[in-house]
């Protein structure tokens, strides 16, 4: 009888026991031409699609389906990987197709020339490994001992009875010594940054943030914005020359990550970024010093620590969705109130701008009720976003290489994808391009697409609703409820890359992270004051031709992101006269100053005088009523006088006639 190899759903300890990282099917280090198969159902289910966690499109078609499927269902089928050099293979990870096909057992064959194959054995018998029992959860099988070869084949022996032979695969392996260093030159990235390149548990993340704070106490501050469902604090670190306070005229910037707990690359990138900025500030890097001195930066690396703990149980090779949601099963990134519908309905009723503002759209009362289906993490984010006058923000996501910008929801409720631009579409496109164009891979037309969409055709960016519609996104909420322009950066094809991949991912994203932060200084800025020099809070800043306003912060300062050009800017505040001026935005980084001084309006002065003498100001309706009453009294008196005058004349005439 055949012996079965041991299998597991990839606990972290098992993954580490291999001492070898994934070969790179999921991360695309393995090219399409290195993948082969005995047959395929059609091209979209060819071997190039047999990558762990690869996703099919909205509509699976002949080009992009979610896995490799054999053209026939028999024990002669195989899936092959050519490592292109000798490797020490230690294990195989398998996953079903993203529909309902999976392999339940398989053999492993190895070769050095692709002609002569040796089946992996346990003693004298062929090993048959137990594989998947459903389509999504990956299963890791470790070999009894490492095996050295160039080629590796997976030969399915049994599969889901109601389906066919379909797989998504990752191979665990270490490269053998390379005397010519070809593999090292081609695949490894060296970095001079003295950073901690590893995955961090919640406790390790807190400790690392503490280390950064102790290293740079004058420019950092650790705080939390609330707690997760399981009670873990949502820690953020502030980086500024005066941490803990908002400085007049200094914009606020934020990066967040980990709203989907299984998308951990963004979490590690923010931990690397805070280390990097601290070290470079201390070393005198003028670029970093200028950024820190002129910006208040907030980094929140783990919005969903509960989800991360679930994903970390499956280590780097967890499934596509394990840990994505909050502990109570909510998608935090799309758990915000749908303010798009509120604004669009007001526009349809022609309430904007007289009865309804085109900005700072209020949150519906039902959303704030305790019975609303809102994650505690989302409530913490909303409170944080309302408390601090953020100007620009980016949330780091995983599983793709693209930057998305609002709106994320289509106007048409029936459209699955449709371009839905904001009033600031040109600004958003520039912001998205600033990140994508400086990323090492996002705009590379020669790279392989992660799953189905080739975003390089649009310079690595896309309108969120044109990709796929989603109501209640963090991006749309931020734009409609606050002054902050928010975008999503999908920073890698692999949601949970192996630790060995982190240096390369840091190099891919480092410049983009810095460049995007610098964009907070693009546009106009200023302070709105009264004639006594006191800042006016909540003043409305309107830009001619752009149907979206912003408001001043509590000190009267504001920041308005704009592309280069000349703009007529109008400021309105309750109790003050309206003021307008033309403000110019240059091409160099650095917002143009555009201050305003507002005088009190005549109506406001009248109200002040009347209040001074303890008199209540009379409303327009009251005035009309008083005028009508006076008119009626005067008219009545006039009628009575005329009546008696006529009566007297009649009596007098009668008397004279008689006599």
UniProtKB/TrEMBL annotation:
Keywords recorded for this protein, A-Z: Glycoprotein, Membrane, Secreted, Signal, Transmembrane, Transmembrane helix
Subcellular location: Secreted
Gene3D superfamilies: Carboxypeptidase-like, regulatory domain, Galactose-binding domain-like, Zn peptidases
Domain Peptidase M14 residues, every copy: 198-520
Domain F5/8 type C residues, every copy: 18-174
Any Pfam family the entry gives: Peptidase_M14
Keyword Glycosyltransferase: no
Gene Ontology biological process terms in this record: proteolysis
Membrane-spanning segments: 629-656
Sample GO molecular function, one term: zinc ion binding
Cellular component annotations (GO), alphabetically ordered: extracellular region
Primary location: secreted
Family: Belongs to the peptidase M14 family.
Name of this protein: Carboxypeptidase X, M14 family member 2
